[in-house]
Amino acid sequence: MSAVNEAHEGVNAEGKRSAAHHLLQALVDCEIEYVFANLGTDHAPIIEEMARWRAEGRRAPHVLLCPHESTAAHMAMGYAFATGRGQAVLVHVDVGTTNAATAMHNANRSRLPLLLMAGKAPYTSHGELPGTRDNYVHFIQEPQDQGSVVRPYVKWEYTLQSAVHVGEVVRRAHTVMQSGARGPVYLMLPREALTGEADAAELPHFPSSRFGEMRPQSVPPAALEDLAERLLRADHPLIITSYAGHSAGTSEAIEKLSLLIGAAVVENAMVSNCNHEMDTFAGGLPGDRLSEADVGLVVDSDVPWIPSENRPDANAYWAHIDIDALKIGSPVWSFPANLRLEGHSAEIVESLCDIVAARRTPEQAERASARVSALRASGEKRRDSAREAASDPGQPNALNPHHVLRALGAALRPDDVIFHEAVRNQPVMVRQIPRPLGGTMTRTGGGGLGASGGMALGYKLARPEALVVQIVGDGAFYYNNPASMFAVSRQYDLPLLTVVLDNAGWSAVKSSTRRVYPDGAAEHDGDFASDFRDDTEFSAMAAMFGFTGIRLDDPASVAEEVANAVALARSGKSVLLHVRLPRH
Fold it and tell me: Counting runs of H as helices and runs of E as strands, what totals does the chain give?
């Protein structure tokens, strides 16, 4: 008998227990290991039950306290990215849900599973039931529709009704979040429901295997064969990806296919990388390759290009391979698709490779080899250009980001993992820190800033042996709730290397305004509402938590200071490296 079933059988003999007890048991049954929590008055039954479990020596999910809900939810995302297994997040009623809402958007767009649980204000006021309202906030934290806060971002939502169906509810949530295009789910927990009781012996019990995730159907062989023939006949095949590193084997399969057909590989959005050092890697933007492509293959990408900036040939053939090839979560999706193949991308692309390898003629192999040679030469030019851009270290207090990030790249190992929100310096970062392994440079697929720190912590929790690096602009750093992030890092011994690229403002805001109004009043007056003070000492924040803070502003010391920061982080110390860049 499994440990899970033994635990459940032990409960059966004990009579009535609270819904909070059955909730913890259901989480254990679903093999959820962690609850990332920001607690409130609505959680009293859960807090009491957790204390009871500890006193009784029961195995319960580990509870990690997070001072801000954004940290908690993004940690769950980082853990899921590392393991593929969604975890639980517990927040306080409507206000905690609002603080976690940005992370729900990010989890949805990143296809990362998590179970967000929120208390719900008690619904009785006169002591009619255990858990009734006994506090001022219980009367003002009852919105008309709490679920609407995150409904646009979650795959499933529900309000717990009773102790008798907790197990079924949690298992349903777990199945939905882990199936297909994985993502967040939302469960609301009224306090009266949590205090209600049920006898485990009288409840239906099903093995977790009865609630397994949905497996995608196999792709029709004829569709794969037709696509393989088109790719073999193509003169300018192009592969575009964004999420290749999210599923095991996809990056490797893309590289194999690109070599077989001589296709350039572009990684738009840099959500989770493929091998940046392979011969066929062609950078982060399709550029002219998009209009030249006669057969295009999009693998795991929600935004393969920006239609207002680049357009494909109207006669080109486009196929999409994805677990969500229809993009059902996007009301408008602006990209051509002659063929959509839905399923696990690694398996589909591998099957495509097998067909291509079996059918490729000597002439087609020769043409593919010539294209690979041309891409290799183009890659060498791109790398030479990157070296040239990094040769100048910059000026005091205005360092060249190319120079700094190249030094960081030189100090990192292939299996070190980067979570980034470099925003306007993202192209510089990708150019100067090429990653040879898929899944070692990633950012959220969503648009909500403040994700990189929590995701880095969650990844470090799952992979304690990894060196985890957060690269973040100063504007995005504020969104990370750094006091919360560093408090969790310290309390649970999760050391990170945080690199703050400080250009004293929101460069993305400024550049966006310029694109829309190149000759407007903002450009004329230099007033873009995007400037911060340029004397903030970010490195001083590290000392509050006993970490090492390094201010990097001297061009002559870049290589030494960066190497020192990486060495300290590799030894198990948290480091904040504050890099002073030219004002944006």
Answer: 21, 21
Are 196 and 18 a contacting pair, CB within 8 Å? yes
Question: For the whole model, what pTM was predicted?
Answer: 0.92
For 104-146, give the secondary structure using H, E and C: HHHHHHHCCCEEEEEEECCCCCCCCCCCCCCCCHHHHCCCCCH
Side-chain-side CA neighbours of residue 441 (13 Å): 28
The pLDDT tens digits for 33-73 are 999 999 998 899 999 999 999 999 999 999 999 999 999 99
Q: What is the per-residue pLDDT for 281?
A: 95
Which stretches of the chain drop beneath a pLDDT of 70? 1-14, 205-212, 270
DSSP assignment of 34-95 equals EEEE---GGGHHHHHHHHHHHHHT---PEEEE-SSHHHHHHHHHHHHHHHS--EEEEE-HHH
| Residues 154 and 186: beta-carbon distance below 8 Å | yes
Domains of the chain: 3-211 (3.40.50.970), 221-383 (3.40.50.1220), 390-580 (3.40.50.970)
By the 8 A CB rule, do 303 and 337 touch? no
Q: What are the Cα distances from residue 34, in Å, to 4, 222, 463, 477?
A: 16, 44, 14, 26
Contacts of 244 (CB under 8 A, 6+ apart): 250, 251, 254, 267, 272, 273, 274, 299, 300, 345, 438
